[in-house]
Amino acid sequence: MTIFKNILLTVCFLLVACGGSFEPKACYVTDMRTITPEEASNYVAKAFEADGRTYKWGGQSWDEGFDCSGLVLWALEKSDIADRWAYQDQAVLDVTAHNLFKYNVEIISEDEAAFGDLIFFDADGDGLQEHMSIYIEPAPEHQSYKVFDAYSVVGEVQHRIVQDFDSKIPKFARLKVAQYSCD
Fold this sequence. Notes:
This protein is α+β, with helices and mostly antiparallel strands.
C-alpha cells in the first residue's frame, strides 16, 4: 500500500509542479463570420465521405457514428473550417442542432438556399430545431429538397429526399463560424 501512496503522491506533485490542471480553458466568441461558398463545398465533400456510416444520437465520430449536428461539426472540423461553436458568448466544442440554429447561422429564405446551406426542422412545432440536414438541391418532382444527413429513422448517414417537407416546419440557414479567444 505504501508503494501505491508514493506513486500517487509523485503523480500529484508532478501535476502541480508542472502547472498541470484538469480544468479546460474558457474560450469566448470574439466575432462570427459566414462561411464562403468554397468552404461550403469543402465541408460537404468531407461530409459525403461519411455516406453509409451509422447513425448514433449524440455522435460526431467516424468510429462511433454521427447524429445530424455531429456530422456537420465533424465535417467542418476535418475541413479546417471550424473547431469551436458559439453558445451564448462562449466558444464550445459541441452544440446540438437547436443551438447550432440559435447561435451559429444566418437565417435565409428558401430562394437564397445554396449548396452546403442547412435546413433545420421543428417537426413537432415546439420551437426547438430537433433535426438538421445539409441542403444539396431542389427536388421539384417531389415538392421537396435533396439533402445529406444523419437520419435516425433510416439509421445511417445518407443522401435523401425529405418526405412531407412543409409539415416539418423547415427553416433555411447559412453557417457562421465563431472566431474566438481562450483564457
